[in-house]
Amino acid sequence: MSFAADVKNELCKAEHSRKQLELLSKGAAYAMTEDGEGCFFNTENKRVADSIADAFDSVGKEYSTGESTFRGRTLYTVTLADKSYAYPMPDCSGDDAFGVYLRGIFLVCGLVANPEKGYQLELFLHDESKCRTLLSMIEEHGMGAKLSSRRGSSFLYIKESEKISDMLTYMGAMMQAMEIMNVKIYKEVRNNVNRSVNCEAANLDKTIAAAQKQADDINYIFEKRGEGYLPDELLQVAKIRLTALELSLSDIGKMLEPPISRSGVNHRLRKISLIADTLRGEDNRGE
């Protein structure tokens, strides 16, 4: 089952008063596709079709239902005899009232993407004038959406996870709104962990590369001049470095007698590197 179906199923579970059923049914009528004197909508979700049909029945509006098969899928159709029922627009000045009205619209023409794959909520009203009217109502209630069109059909959409979650909460789909935020939190934690791991891996690569360079310098000195060429304080560090490239400078410092700080080890390794570079220069000139 899709996330959009989960949202609609949650909305269908809501109980409504007589006034709310009128708001729900008017929202549904507003979102339906006009056809002659009437209007209709198709859905694969039988619960949605039954909920809208029950709402029309509760307010005494003439409607019909049907069932058909399209490309192997069962479609449920609800047809309202009089499309003018959607007008005039109901009084939705209160947030609760508009939430129920918007619920009816979403059940008929709403889509919402699985948050695991992306954030997108769409209301396909097809008619640009209807979209603009609904957009004004949405903005009046402190929410936002954008107007667009696809293949000649106008629709409203939201791409921000917080705004989608707010709208679902507004309509009464609290559980699915929470699911969006849970997925968002999980993604953020996962991304932070990945960034941390990548950063640590990059730092480890740099550390190993630096350690290998230090080992190359030490081996060059030993090969060309012998271990005795280095003073004792540098020789101690050199021998420990050769035993394990993975040791940090702090670990090397702790293994010395007497122990020294990380910066002290770094200073000695720099001296070794300078000695190796000097010897390389002398050897190159001798050649």
Automatic annotation (TrEMBL):
WhiA LAGLIDADG-like domain span: 100-190
Record flagged with keyword Cell division: yes
SUPFAM superfamilies: Homing endonucleases
Pfam families: HTH_WhiA, LAGLIDADG_WhiA
GO molecular function, one term: DNA binding
All residue ranges annotated as the Sporulation regulator WhiA C-terminal domain in the record: 193-276
Function: Involved in cell division and chromosome segregation.
Similarity comment: family membership: Belongs to the WhiA family.
Identification of the protein by name: Probable cell division protein WhiA
Organism: [Eubacterium] siraeum CAG:80
Upper classification of the organism: Bacteria, Bacillati, Bacillota, Clostridia, Eubacteriales
